[in-house]
Amino acid sequence: MDTDDTILYARQIYNENKVLFDFVMSKGIENKFSHVAKQFCEEMDLKLLCSKETWFSFIPSIWSEPLDKIKVADPTSRGLGYPMSFEFTKWKDNLYLTLVIHPFLDQEFRKKFVDTIKSVTTLKPRNLKAIDKILQNDKDAKWTTVHSGKKEIDDWTNVELISQGCKDIYDLKKDAVLNDIVVKTPEKLGNLMSTV
Predict the structure, then answer these.
(1) d(CA 7, CA 63)
(2) What residues form DSSP beta bridges with 89?
(3) CA dihedral for 26, 99, 174, 150, sign (positive or negative)
């Protein structure tokens, strides 16, 4: 049971060893998140692009071939040159899944690309508004978030819990918008490339 004395004592220990505690916490989360990233992508037939302390990016395997043909994004971006990728991110107590369209060197092509992805499915009004707002000033457009979901994670040291959270969010059977984006994107990208 927490008492005022035990709380004060815990704070004192933390303050005296802050560097050590912060290091242990950051590496513990990093190792767990990296492990989850690799395991999740293998189980779900996804191509892992990048994994960091609190996020990882990936694309569905069925996107590999069409996206390999249009690696037009900044190669130093989180998508490693791919024009878009999904990202799982730890933010506070939540796990977020976001589909991100990355920075392009050619803004006109980026606008066509965003329009193509926008046509894949009926997106939520919030997403459409965000996309349209960015497209109104396409010279400044760098990042576009198309679709997102989130889940609260109670224990960030529990690999199984984090992994299950990823699966709960990335569920193509339950999330029709996500399913449309994953399944219909390769065909739409093929159509886009035939117009370039």
Answers:
(1) 51
(2) 55, 96
(3) positive
Which pair of tokens denotes residue 168? 């709960």
pTM of the model: 0.74
Residues near 167 by beta carbon (within 8 Å), at least 6 away in sequence: 40, 44
Residue-by-residue pLDDT tens, the chain, 196 positions = 567 777 777 778 878 887 776 666 655 555 577 889 999 999 999 999 988 888 899 999 999 888 887 766 666 667 777 888 999 998 888 999 988 888 777 778 888 888 888 887 665 544 444 444 444 444 555 777 777 788 999 888 888 999 999 999 999 999 888 888 898 888 888 777 766 5
Which amino acid, residue 2?
D
Long-range contacts of 172-178 (CB under 8 A, 24+ apart): 175/149, 176/121, 177/121, 177/122, 177/123, 177/124, 177/147, 178/147, 178/149
